[in-house]
Design a protein that fits this description.
The complex is a heterodimer of chains A (about 350) and B (about 325).
Chain A lengths: L1 E4 L5 H25 L4 H13 L2 H26 L7 H16 L7 H30 L3 H21 L34 H18 L1 H11 L1 H6 L4 H28 L10 H11 L4 H25 L5 H21 E4 L2
Antiparallel strand pairs in A: 1-2
Helix pairs in contact in A: 1-2, 1-13, 2-3, 2-12, 3-7, 3-10, 3-11, 3-12, 4-5, 4-6, 4-10, 4-11, 5-10, 7-8, 7-10, 7-12, 8-10, 11-12, 11-13, 12-13
Chain B lengths: L1 H6 L4 H26 L7 H17 L4 H23 L6 H23 L26 H5 L4 H19 L1 H11 L1 H6 L4 H27 L11 H11 L4 H25 L5 H20 L18
Helix pairs in contact in B: 2-7, 2-10, 2-11, 2-12, 3-4, 3-5, 3-10, 3-11, 4-5, 4-10, 7-8, 8-10, 11-12, 11-13, 12-13
The chains are: A mainly alpha (about 350), B mainly alpha (about 325).
Chain lengths: ~350, ~325
């Protein structure tokens, strides 16, 4: 078999294949649900109800989508320039640690000063964490996939050390948990009494800003050129390494915002389990959005809906909630296949 | 204290542990090496090891014997290898994204299956794992005999696999085809051999080895399966392949050095007696992997067609 490029895929085709990818995801999930001994349609009904079926469910889905928008944007930016940042998980925690360092009383300032200080500090921390692998890549030719992956483990152990040492809350009854962020440092709630916080608004604005950078700025153009063909970009006079470093700083900074959002917005303090793999799920979010920053918002809400819905379903239908992770991974693989099929035709011969 | 820290190297217990810790890494490193020599990066390794750890252990738990468990682990690994190979070789999808996807899929499917199959058990059930098998004669050799020849059968298999991989890669036409597929696929096609078949086959065999590496943990090192037990070993193996310059012998030495270091940090932790936070010791293996990558990066000679999809008739 061989692949032939399609001259100009029609609008119908560009939508048909991704739709089929989502369908395939649900078919595979249905098979697993049956293996688990439940009725697929009933289970999917419960997932949808748990994700969007009530005001509570909807708010919960948007709350869960917030960190995913940030990590999704971080990945979308990096992957666009073919900088394989698999370390968004660590960068998220870098942002979370910085939030605690700056937000638990070290700086006495009103909210309109403290919150921007936390945001800038956290973004710097996340950016610096990815700067290392980026420089190792550009200067020494060390593959950034492995370094960013390994840094996830190193940084999580570092956070564990902080939480059992200098950052440990003396009032925490011995739990590895940090002190709480002061009220001036907390991101306010959007609706009184609901968990959804201003991190969500910040995420939407970040998506718009990243879209502007990618679509309208010189840097965005250079990033796309480097991602498309680094040799050609270098030949055209684009400073490839400098673009990669800038990309890394932006990507790491965006991932760190997920940490700010979870700590200053949702949880109030730092523990080792503030992220159930948001950094890795960000890869799926970005790929489902075809690396489009605005699409990231939609796909993050979709993925968050599956997680929140599956949690609710799992409690009532008894199908393990890991079904959501399977669905998200299947969606990733079927989506990249679908995108390929919109561009190429398979010839069997 | 400094003397204590050095004395560790002189104990047989330390080296026995080092070889044991090296065994799963050797399987998985050889697996990744085969994939990459054929031109395919396999980031599915972490997930495939998880699958192998579960399926091998579960087969025994369900009543199969140990070697059947190893076979089942290998087969399930090969199955995920087939998926990775199909998506990246004939379809030419991004090897990075597909590999991460395979890891996410394999891991979540394993956890899902575990929860479905063992919904009622609260503590992880145990199996009767592989026992140390002293090789007659050789295990009598002082010091070395105890270190190398009183291990479990899977450890012996790991060393045999290294020898086999080296022999096949450098001494057989098949190995030549695999290496050429990773260096110069056009030349392979010119010989009338299908690059697609060679690459997909290599990814399947490599993935089977990764899965056996995972199975070592549940069937030889420990006796039960628990979540997140692979704990980055797959990623370390990817670093070991680079460190070993894509050569089986060098990669084996890398794996043993790494395992010795890992066994050493555990013992050093006890010698230093809690003065240094234990997380520092746990970080060291990952830090060491990154340092090793930096050290060899300048002279790393990647297979030339690594991560380059091949299309028949294209130049």
């Amino acid at each position: 078999m061989r692949l032939e490029p399609k001259p100009a895929p029609s609008m119908a085709v560009t939508l048909l294949y991704p739709a089929m990818a989502i369908l395939a995801t649900f078919v595979i999930a249905a098979i697993l649900v049956m293996i688990a001994g439940a009725a697929p349609l009933q289970v999917f009904g419960l997932v949808i109800k748990g994700a969007v079926g009530s005001q509570f469910a909807l708010v919960e889905t948007l709350t869960r989508a917030t960190p995913l928008i940030f990590t999704g944007l971080a990945i979308a930016v990096a992957f666009r320039a073919k900088l394989w940042n698999i370390g968004a998980e660590a960068q998220l925690y870098a942002g979370a640690v910085m939030t605690i360092l700056l937000g638990t009383g070290a700086i006495a300032a009103p909210a309109f000063v403290l919150i921007p200080v936390i945001i800038v500090g956290a973004m710097t921390a996340g950016a610096l964490l990815l700067l290392g692998p980026a420089i190792l890549k550009t200067r020494f030719g060390v593959d950034e996939v492995v370094t960013t992956l390994l840094l996830n483990f190193i940084f999580l152990l570092f956070v564990s050390m902080l939480l059992e040492g200098p950052l440990k809350d003396p009032m925490g009854l011995g739990w590895p948990q940090s002190e709480r962020v002061v009220s001036e440092g907390r991101l306010p709630r959007i609706i009184q009494g609901k968990r959804l916080h201003f991190g969500f608004i910040l995420a939407i604005f970040s998506a718009l800003a990243v879209w502007l950078i990618m679509a309208k700025s010189v840097l965005g153009y250079e990033m796309r050129a480097v991602g498309h063909n680094p040799q050609a970009a270098r030949f055209a006079g684009i400073p490839v390494n400098r673009v990669l470093v800038k990309t890394a700083l932006l990507s790491g900074g965006l991932a760190a915002l997920a940490g700010v959002s979870e700590v200053a917005g949702l949880k109030g303090s730092l523990t080792l389990d503030i992220s159930p793999g948001f950094g890795y799920t960000g890869i799926v979010v970005a790929m489902l959005a075809l690396l489009n920053p605005l699409g990231v918002v939609v796909s993050a809400i979709f993925v968050a809906g599956i997680f929140v819905g599956a949690d609710a379903m799992s409690r009532s239908a008894g199908v393990p909630s890991y079904i959501s992770d399977v669905m998200v991974a299947t969606a990733l693989l079927s989506m990249v296949t679908a995108i390929m099929l919109t561009r190429f035709r398979i010839r069997w011969r | 204290m400094l003397l204590d820290a050095f004395d560790i190297f002189l104990t047989t217990g330390f080296w026995v542990a080092a070889i044991r810790i090296a065994s799963p890494l050797i399987f998985a490193t050889m697996g990744e090496l085969i994939c990459e020599r054929a031109g395919v990066l396999n980031l599915g390794i972490e997930g495939i090891m998880t699958v192998g750890a579960f399926t091998g252990w579960f087969t025994v738990y369900a009543g199969g014997d140990l070697w059947t468990g190893v076979m089942v682990a290998a087969l399930s690994g090969a199955l995920f290898g087939l998926l990775h190979g199909f998506l990246t070789v004939p379809l030419g999808l991004s090897q990075h994204v597909t590999g991460i996807g395979i890891t996410l899929l394999a891991t979540s499917l394993t956890y899902f299956t575990y929860r479905v199959a063992l919904s009622e058990s609260t503590s992880p059930p145990k199996i009767e794992p592989f026992q140390p098998y002293p090789v007659p004669g050789l295990s009598e050799i002082p010091f070395l005999g105890e270190i190398l020849f009183m291990q479990t059968p899977l450890t012996y298999l790991a060393f045999i696999v290294v020898a086999m991989v080296a022999w096949v890669l450098y001494r057989t036409p098949l190995g030549l085809a695999v290496r050429a597929a990773g260096e110069n696929p056009v030349a392979v096609e010119a010989q009338g051999i299908s690059v697609t078949a060679v690459r997909v086959g290599a990814v399947m065999v490599g993935s089977a080895l990764m899965a056996i590496g995972g199975a070592f943990l549940t069937m030889s090192a420990f006796n039960s399966f628990f979540f997140e037990m692979i704990n980055g070993r797959g990623w370390i193996c990817i670093a070991l392949v680079v460190f070993g310059s894509w050569r089986p012998g060098k990669a084996l030495i890398g794996a043993i050095l790494f395992a010795a270091f890992d066994a050493y940090q555990v013992r050093l932790q006890q010698v230093t007696g809690g003065v240094i936070p234990y997380q520092i010791f746990l970080m060291l293996p990952y830090v060491l992997s990154i340092v090793a990558l930096i050290v060899v990066a300048r002279r790393a000679s990647y297979p030339k067609a690594l991560m380059v999809p091949y299309q028949k008739g294209e130049r």
